[in-house]
């Protein structure tokens, strides 16, 4: 019943019955571009039409399926069409039809008649993976990088067909464009049919008699390409971005793959990162810790001033709100956390040492809260 509800495949591609191979291919490319998901984001209707166009092309681009479709309509390309079970074979043998999928799961081989993929259907190109190293600040605020890749692109001379000018590929006479052939073997149980790659066309379903001189019949050539990649603000070390459509070219009019860039962030001399927070340490003098001071603190935005309160202890951490890493989804920024530590002065002269001793003599235990607590615990 499902097949009766489908639109006519020629109608889907805007063609009349009996259209030529070139007309079918041109119509498919036009309709595929029109309804491609990349050009129609969040459009369910376009997505369904894109699937419908691909289904129509898969049938009409295959000589064997097209012939069955022209004769029997949608029923002719149904996977169960013509299945005859054990009695449908010839020479007293077995014709397993779709049961080949079941036997294949046990024996690891294809018992003929199972579902096949069209070797000439559009195929998405492979993605390219690479890594790029950026600075701490570039990761925080985003940047644009030029990257150079080597990728397979459609041959400009033959436009991806693989054929010399004025020629076109021929349907393989052995497999009739399916890319697979059946081999029948006599066994004590009867004649078994196994499916294998067509040796004549190598599984392509088509034969190029006069290959293109530039790509030697492959339809693609290797080229070096420089691409600008936008690195989003807030990206972290080890994360990967995708540049759509900048991978290897697709086959049979299929879309190109993507360029996948994994980001490596160089360590910073002052800062380290935890999520969207920036952490750093800042040395202060004994006098600044005791008396308080106005400090200049480095941030990824530049220097800012901070009023250090009197009596600050070594190891104290304070927060600079909104001075952290921007969120990669664009929702605000993290904070910066600064931990101060007291640097002990070195190489004091005699006068400085005597002055320090006199100062220490003026202090009592009440001036040192942590010492009092420590020795109190020690006595217990």
Protein described:
With 380 residues, the chain is of the alpha+beta class. It is built from nine helices and 15 strands. The strands form six sheets. Strands 10-11-15-14 form a four-stranded mixed sheet. A three-stranded mixed sheet has the order 1-9-8. Strands 2-7 form a two-stranded antiparallel ribbon.
Order of helices and strands: HHHHHEHEEEEEEEEEEHEEEEHH
Shape: elongated
Mean pLDDT: 84
Distance between the termini: 88 Å
Rg is 36 Å
Poorly predicted spans: 82-115
Strand content is 25-35%
Strand numbers in spatial order across the main sheet: 10-11-15-14
Percent range for helical residues?
10-25%
Number of helices: 9
Decide which structural class fits the backbone.
alpha+beta
- Biggest sheet record: 4 strands, mixed
User: How many beta-strand elements?
Assistant: 15
Task: Provide a quick synopsis of the model.
The chain contains nine helices and 15 strands.
